[in-house]
UniProtKB/TrEMBL annotation:
This is Acetate kinase. The keyword ATP-binding applies. GO terms for molecular function: acetate kinase activity; ATP binding; magnesium ion binding. The record marks H178, R239 as: Transition state stabilizer. Its EC number is 2.7.2.1. It comes from Kingella negevensis. Its cofactor is Mg(2+); Mn(2+).
């Protein structure tokens, strides 16, 4: 039977993540990961039915080569003619886009205009769009922006307390990220809880390698922890999150570092990794803490404490909290962190159920608070690819 399949692409500067989804069932028929793109030893790995196959991209070791190899793989699988549209994850749409859009020349220009707001990501996203247009000729392309969902934030939530001319002249403001995940998870949470999304105050914590939290009131984002860049907010795998801005001049003056070097320290050497001096990976941190590693124990506590403080501040943003939602690799699996956060937030009416909390991992989701908890906490697996596929199908008129 012919199915309507959507190809979802998520391009980084040297990587390409792809997935082919059946938009109706959500089934993933194939996924791939291109790595070292731009280097002579670039390759792409395909995963079909649990089997992996690696293809070297010798002739064209770049994004176009990776998309070309993807097309060959689809031909081999007999799926090529069933691909009906392509959806692209794009990090920043600035203030111009509050929703996903079909790719046109004007959209490409707008993504280029937003490069100063996402200098590492938007250029890579554009490479993916161009490669898809070149290789899958004639198919509609749709872009789904990470920032779009947060465009409903009120001015008092997105404005920094610095001279306003920087906002007017440079667009310097808080934008937020992980928007596609929040949109998906907010809808799922309402469904799982049997509530109307348009009458629901959610605080959602998306905890992956990058981590953020958002207040979603009646289906709309009203605040989130990431700002101009994904460095602001929570403690993350290697990112510091919130910090006294004077740390910049303190480190630069004392260690004779450039601004870029301090930025690298805060983005790549901080967070769980910096505190624990062990790992940026939550599993390794949990294991370390269980074995009495002092740095891992402290990292786990700081991560949870800072997250709990943000839960309270997001409850202010939403004007209350009906449910706290955990998602992302850590949110979906780490019972230890969830329990710490819920204990810190007991005063808000959250009461953890130990057994339910421990059971919610490896794809098992559901409520993790006790029946007499005033506020519900729930684990909901995110699925950004499916959200992108749905938008792509809708905007392509499928
Ligand atoms: P990304 O931001 O790259 O999409 P993920 O959402 O995949 O990240 O989350 C990665 C994080 O999830 C890592 O810190 C990893 O250690 C953590 N994680 C994955 N599985 C588990 C687990 N079983 N227990 C604790 N943490 C986990």
């Amino acid at each position: 039977m012919t199915q309507k399949l959507i190809l979802v692409l998520n391009c980084g500067s040297s990587s390409l993540k792809g997935a082919v989804l059946n938009n109706d069932s959500g089934e993933v028929l194939m996924s791939c990961l291109g790595e070292k793109l731009g280097l002579p030893d670039a390759y792409i790995t395909f995963k079909v039915n649990g089997e992996k196959e690696k293809v070297e991209l010798k002739e064209e070791p770049n994004h176009t080569g990776a998309v070309g190899a993807l097309l060959n793989e689809l031909k081999k699988l007999g799926l090529e003619s069933q691909i009906t549209a392509i959806g692209h994850r794009v990090v920043s749409g600035g203030e111009k886009y509050s929703e996903s859009v079909l790719v046109t020349d004007e959209v490409v220009k707008a993504i280029e205009d937003c490069i100063p707001l996402a200098p590492l990501h938007n250029p890579a996203n554009l490479l993916g769009i161009r490669a898809a247009q070149d290789i899958f000729k004639g198919l509609p392309n749709v872009v789904v922006f990470d920032t779009a969902f947060h465009q409903t934030m009120p001015e008092h939530a997105y404005t920094y307390a610095i001279p306003r001319k920087f906002y007017r002249e440079l667009g310097l403001r808080r934008y937020g990220f992980h928007g596609t995940s929040y949109r998906f998870v907010a809808g799922e949470a309402a469904r799982v809880l049997g509530k109307d999304e348009n009458n629901l105050k959610l605080v959602i914590a998306h905890l992956g390698n990058g981590a953020s939290i958002a207040a979603v009131k009646n289906g709309k984002s009203v605040d989130t922890s990431m700002g101009l860049t994904p460095l602001e907010g929570l403690v993350m795998g290697t990112r510091s999150g919130d910090i006294d801005p004077s740390v910049y001049s303190f480190l630069a003056d004392n260690l004779k570092l450039s601004i870029q070097e301090v930025t690298d320290i805060l983005n790549k050497q901080s967070g769980l990794l910096g505190i624990s001096e062990l790992s940026n990976d939550c599993r390794a941190i949990e294991e370390g803490a269980e074995q009495g590693h002092e740095g891992a124990t402290l990292a786990l506590e700081i991560f949870s404490y800072r997250l709990a403080k943000y839960v309270a501040s997001m409850a202010v943003a939403a004007g209350g909290i009906d449910a706290l939602v955990f998602t992302g690799g850590i949110g979906e699996n780490s019972g230890a962190i969830r329990e710490k956060v819920l204990n810190y937030c007991e005063f808000l009416g959250l009461k953890v159920d130990g057994e339910r909390n421990l059971a919610a991992r490896f794809g098992n989701s559901g409520v993790i608070t006790a029946d007499d908890s005033k506020v519900t906490a729930v684990v909901i697996p995110t699925n950004e690819e499916l959200m992108i596929a749905h938008d792509t199908a809708r905007l392509s008129g499928l």
